[in-house]
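Final report, Chapter 2: Outcomes

The project's central promise was a pipeline that accepts a single protein chain and returns its three-dimensional structure in a standardized token representation, suitable for archiving and comparison. That pipeline is now operational. To close this chapter, we reproduce one record exactly as it appears in the project archive, with the input sequence first and the structure output second.
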Amino acid sequence: MLAHLLQFTILAVVSIAVVCAALLALGGNILWALSAFALLVVGHAVFLAFEFLLLARAHREDPAPVASASELVGAWWGEVLVAPQVFCWQQPFRSQVQPDQLPAPVGRPVGIVFVHGFVCNRGLWNPWLRRLRLLGVPFVAVNLEPVFGSIDDYAPIVEQAVRRVEAATAERPLIVAHSMGGLAVRAWLDAWQADARVRHVITIGTPHRGTLLARFAPWPNAMQMRPDSRWHRALAEREPSARFANFTCFYSHCDNIVFPASTATLPGADNRHVKGVAHVQLAREEIVFREVLRHAGIATASPPRAGSGTG
């Protein structure tokens, strides 16, 4: 569903920009025509800059390390480059290019379940899935739907993926989740009381205690991600205190979606701060990928990335 929505949005925006530029050019307004194309190219950069301004302001009372101006600018530029790859190519047009890999269990390898975040799909993970395929690691990457539904709606999707990996490997899976996906995993653990079925959970930029940016979105899952939301409070009251000892939470003081930064941490978890990295970038970070390999029991070095493309 999301892939089709993104395809329609991209084609609509490009078509409108082309038509406007053509009409302006025909009217002799070449400069305005070029401006129409420039707006198409740099519009997302301006939007991201606004997010970074919000996160810098929100960080004032947060215990996480304070990002320097150069770190914020570097993270903004990195996100400017990465976001179009993910939202304009991988997710709309390449979400199925790396199908799930569930070979027969030879030596009972550890399988991985990947859970994406808000307004994303499994195409987010393409670079990592390609590398895991070369290593022969079993994996399943889900699509969370409905896109704008309740986070609780995603728990059965996670359950189905976990069962597939369990059946293929006869082992407890490692679960890796980005952004809202970490909340979907917590909802699944709560609904199925499935702690004993999980090898480890790695969350990447997950708004475990909400994010201020969610205040600007009206959809059910976004409202659930608001700080101190009723959904957050109810889930936290039901969760056993020992659950998070099996979590590793990666977070960043330059996360332009989940802020203040410490909201992406959990009490009792192995909370790992990554300096100078924005939200989508976190799902591309080599230090995070190597931690995934470590928990999957992969002792060998990961395959080189040269020539792998963007998926």
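Archive annotation: DSSP finds ten helices and six strands in the chain.
This record, like all others produced under the grant, will remain available to the consortium after the project formally closes.
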